[in-house]
Structures are given as structure tokens and as C-alpha cells.
């Protein structure tokens, strides 16, 4: 048995940091505030210092003490870093959001991966209110850090859920180009498309050198001004869903900027408004979909590429009573299949829910031409009588009854992870599509029986945020 005395070791190293009588490193941070340290400890704990304090280092003072200057790191932040390096402790409860963000940047620069991950998680979990109040500052900071995708995604998700305060803020016109592009290309950005267009124009005017606040009056613009704005907005205009803009708003807000839009985009939009002809080359998926409405919150429960394509992973991750949606992508096809279950998933049992339905899309770009299959209610009642399954105007879904009063704990359906009326179901690693199952009003597939290993399966828990 190994005896460990980490507490004493930590105390001794802490004293060594405070006194630092035999230090051989001086680190100047901020406006020349000095910290004393020991090269062996810095080398052992930080790849950055290991590289910096190499044999080729030539910034040595007369007393053989090495001097390192880091003016971009605030003294408060560096004090936290040294404590982490020496004794492995970090306490951020009394630090401001600005200091913690600075610590994130400094830990990234000094290659302190463990600390970097901790700070990123701490900001998301403990400083989310501050993050949402300072989104532009945070985004401008974290988009420069390649390893900070988790915090980047958190900020973008927060904006997409409630974008209007962000788009109307005073800081929005100064938003960096990559960040705006990442926002506008997202299908879950819950904003009216005409509002997105208005603020894109304001952003573009602010970003164009010959325009800006000194030349924002469009009545005074010449052709060169419009051409300059066109160049600024070139990569963003194709991200606007013009078909989601009403004809009145298109006439009043978009048409005046006709010379800024690419000719093909403008002509296809006009043809849509005049003849209801869908664009052939420029249409993007609408941000407004029948299912993924802003009234609902969707929580990812299971993703096969992340959690494993097997019965055990599916059952473990999806064991909830909340309504959920299943989405399946087929490898050999662009088609996407899905089903909605209002009861939730419970391993091993059958029940019926009249609100269930299954659907399919031609591909992930076409969300307007959805094929929906609804239940045929009378056959369900007869099926329940013959099999003894419980009937409550419900379609067949897997569900377990857990209370003592329930007498319908069916275990003969354990092999099916999800099952919509023996028409669309998962068994092992395979997904099955069945024709003429008798449960739905139209056929879900043209083939008698299709069996395939999916490219991806995702399951989302659905919550109505107004309930």
C-alpha cells in the first residue's frame, strides 16, 4: 500500500512560492509587476516555460536570474496561474468575469491545458449570467483561441435562442466578420429574417471604410458607395433567407439595396414573390420549421457517433419520460427519417399514443416538403384487444410502467430501441422501414422492407418552454 502525503507537499510548495528565497526567474507582468519563481517547477508544469527556459535562452541578468516579460497578462491573473503551477489549486469564486476571461487567455498562451479546460467550464457553469451580458467581448476573445470551441458554441447557442438583444446592442456594428458569419449561417437563429437583414445592412455600413457613421445617409450615396458595401457584404448576403421575408418588407427594405445583391439572388427572389416559383440555386433552409419552433427547447439525449450505435447506449441515454424526437440519417441516401413520441422511452414495453407520428425529408436542406404519416385509430383499438396491449388513444411506442398499480410491464420488446408501429424501428445496429404495417395512413417507404445501418441517429428531448 502506497502512503501519500500530498497535503504536506502542497504546504511546502506554497511556502516556497511565497518566500522564493532561492528563485532564479523574474517574471514581469502587466505594468512591470514582478513575480519570483523557480525554473525547475515552471519547466515541469508548463510546456510553454519548458520551451522558453531552454538552453538557448539569452535574457539572463548579471546574477544569473532569468527575466521573462509578459505585459499582456494581468498581475491578478498571473497570481492565480502561479498558485496553480506550484500547488495545483484554483479558487475563482471572488474573481470578476473579466479576470477569469483573462485567465482563460493566459492559460491558453502558457499551454496549461488542464487549467484552460477548467476555466472554460467554470465560465459556462458559474459565470453564465456575466457571459450573456458581455457576449461581444467574450466572442471577440474566444474566437481567437482554437481550442475554445465549447465556449464559442455556448455563446452562439445563447445568441440563437434570444438574438434580438444582441443584434440591437451598441456593440453589434463592431462585431468581427467570422463571428457574424458563424451566426447567420445557423438554421437555429431565432430571428425574423427582415430584422436580420436590417442589422446586416447596419453592420455592413459600419464596416465599410467610405461609409460608417459619417456617411450613413443612403440618399447621399453614389455608385462607388454601393459597390463598396457590396464587397463588404459579399459573403453574408447568401446566408439571408429571403423567402422568409414578406413581400412588403422585401419591397421596402431589400429592393432599395438591389445593386448590393448578386443578380441571381435578386432575380430568383423576385420570381418567388411574383410567381411563387422556388429558387433553383440560392434557397437556404428556412429558420422557421413546423417542428423546431422557438416555443420548444430541444435537448440532445443521444448521438450514435458520440455515444455508440448499440442497444445499451441508446437505452441508457434515452431513458426519459419526456416527449422525444428521433432523427435517422441513412448512409446510402440523403434522406432523413424521424418520429415523434409524446410519452418518452422506457425499456421493454408497448403502449399507444395518438399524438405520435413519423416523417421523412428528402435531405437536410429540404425541410419544407416533409412526408408525414399519421396513425389510423380504429385498427389500433382492435390490435390492442387481440394483443392485450394498453390502449389510451396511443400509438405503439416502447414504454415501461414502473408503479405498483400498473399491470402492463411487457418485456418482449427489449430488442427494439424505438418502435413506431412496426413501421419505423431500431433493432441492434439496424434501422428498419416497413411498408403496409397497418398502423399509419400512408406508406412510410415504397420498399416492402428496408434494413440499414444508419450513418447517424440523434434523439432530442422536447420541452414546451411555455408549459
Folded structure, characterized:
Pfam families: BACK, BTB, TLD. Residues 23-94 form the BTB domain. This is 4512_t:CDS:1. InterPro entries: BACK, BTB-POZ/Galectin-3-binding, BTB/POZ_dom, SKP1/BTB/POZ_sf, TLDc_dom. The chain has 3 domains: 6-137, Potassium Channel Kv1.1, Chain A (2-Layer Sandwich), CATH 3.30.710.10; 192-275, no CATH class; 296-464, no CATH class. The chain contains 18 helices and 15 strands. The chain has helices spanning 6-19, 39-45, 47-52, 75-87, 97-109, 113-126, 128-133, 135-142, 149-161, 164-167, 177-184, 193-207, 223-233, 247-254, 263-275, 304-307, 311-317, 377-387, and strands spanning 25-29, 33-37, 66-70, 296-303, 324-330, 336-341, 350-353, 357-361, 371-373, 394-398, 416-420, 424-427, 430-434, 449-452, 454-464. The strands form 4 sheets. It has a 6-stranded antiparallel β-sheet. Strands 11-12-13-14 form a 4-stranded antiparallel β-sheet. Strands 2-1-3 form a 3-stranded mixed β-sheet. A hairpin with a 2-residue loop joins strand 12 (424-427) and strand 13 (430-434). Helix 1 runs antiparallel to helix 4 and helix 5 runs antiparallel to helix 6 (113-126). The longest helix has 15 residues, at 193-207. The protein is flat and about 85 Å long.
Amino acid at each position: 500500500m502506497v502512503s501519500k502525503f500530498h497535503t504536506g507537499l502542497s504546504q511546502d510548495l506554497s511556502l516556497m512560492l511565497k518566500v522564493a528565497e532561492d528563485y532564479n526567474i523574474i517574471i514581469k507582468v502587466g505594468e512591470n509587476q514582478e513575480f519570483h519563481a523557480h525554473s525547475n517547477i515552471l519547466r515541469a508544469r508548463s510546456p510553454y516555460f519548458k520551451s522558453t527556459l531552454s538552453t538557448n535562452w539569452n535574457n539572463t541578468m548579471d546574477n544569473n536570474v532569468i527575466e521573462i516579460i509578459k505585459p499582456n497578462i494581468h498581475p491578478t491573473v498571473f497570481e492565480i496561474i502561479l498558485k496553480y503551477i506550484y500547488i495545483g489549486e484554483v479558487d475563482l469564486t471572488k474573481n470578476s468575469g473579466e479576470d477569469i476571461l483573462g485567465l482563460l487567455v493566459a492559460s491558453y498562451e502558457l499551454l496549461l491545458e488542464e487549467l484552460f479546460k477548467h476555466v472554460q467550464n467554470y465560465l459556462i457553469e458559474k459565470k453564465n449570467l456575466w457571459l450573456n451580458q458581455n457576449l461581444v467581448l467574450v466572442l471577440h476573445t474566444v474566437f481567437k483561441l482554437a481550442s475554445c470551441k465549447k465556449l464559442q458554441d455556448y455563446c452562439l447557442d445563447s445568441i440563437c435562442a434570444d438574438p434580438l438583444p444582441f443584434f440591437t446592442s451598441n456593440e453589434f456594428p463592431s462585431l468581427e466578420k467570422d463571428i457574424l458569419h458563424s451566426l447567420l449561417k445557423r438554421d437555429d437563429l431565432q430571428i425574423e429574417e427582415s430584422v436580420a437583414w436590417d442589422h446586416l445592412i447596419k453592420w455592413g455600413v459600419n464596416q465599410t471604410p467610405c461609409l460608417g457613421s459619417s456617411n450613413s445617409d443612403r440618399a447621399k450615396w453614389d455608385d462607388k458607395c454601393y459597390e463598396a458595401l457590396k464587397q463588404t457584404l459579399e459573403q453574408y448576403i447568401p446566408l439571408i433567407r429571403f423567402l422568409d421575408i414578406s413581400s412588403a418588407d422585401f419591397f421596402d427594405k431589400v429592393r432599395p439595396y438591389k445593386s448590393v445583391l448578386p443578380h441571381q439572388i435578386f432575380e430568383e427572389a423576385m420570381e418567388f414573390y411574383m410567381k411563387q416559383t422556388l429558387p433553383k440555386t440560392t434557397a437556404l433552409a428556412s429558420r422557421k420549421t413546423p417542428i423546431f419552433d422557438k416555443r420548444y427547447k430541444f435537448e440532445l439525449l443521444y448521438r450514435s457517433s458520440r455515444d455508440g450505435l448499440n442497444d445499451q447506449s441508446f437505452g441508457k441515454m434515452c431513458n426519459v419520460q419526456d416527449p422525444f424526437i428521433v432523427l435517422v440519417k441513412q448512409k446510402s441516401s440523403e434522406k432523413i427519417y424521424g418520429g415523434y413520441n409524446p410519452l418518452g422511452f422506457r425499456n421493454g414495453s408497448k403502449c399507444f399514443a395518438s399524438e405520435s407520428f413519423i416523417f421523412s425529408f428528402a435531405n437536410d436542406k429540404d425541410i419544407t416538403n416533409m412526408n408525414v404519416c399519421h396513425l389510423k385509430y380504429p385498427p389500433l383499438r382492435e390490435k390492442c384487444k387481440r394483443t392485450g396491449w394498453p390502449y389510451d388513444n396511443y400509438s405503439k411506442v416502447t414504454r415501461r410502467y414502473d408503479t405498483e398499480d400498473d399491470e402492463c410491464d411487457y418485456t418482449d420488446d427489449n430488442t427494439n430501441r424505438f418502435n413506431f408501429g412496426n413501421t419505423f424501428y431500431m433493432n441492434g445496429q439496424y434501422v428498419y422501414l416497413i411498408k403496409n404495417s397497418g398502423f399509419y395512413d400512408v406508406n412510410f417507404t415504397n420498399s416492402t422492407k428496408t434494413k440499414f445501418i444508419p450513418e447517424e441517429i440523434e434523439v432530442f428531448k422536447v420541452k414546451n418552454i411555455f408549459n
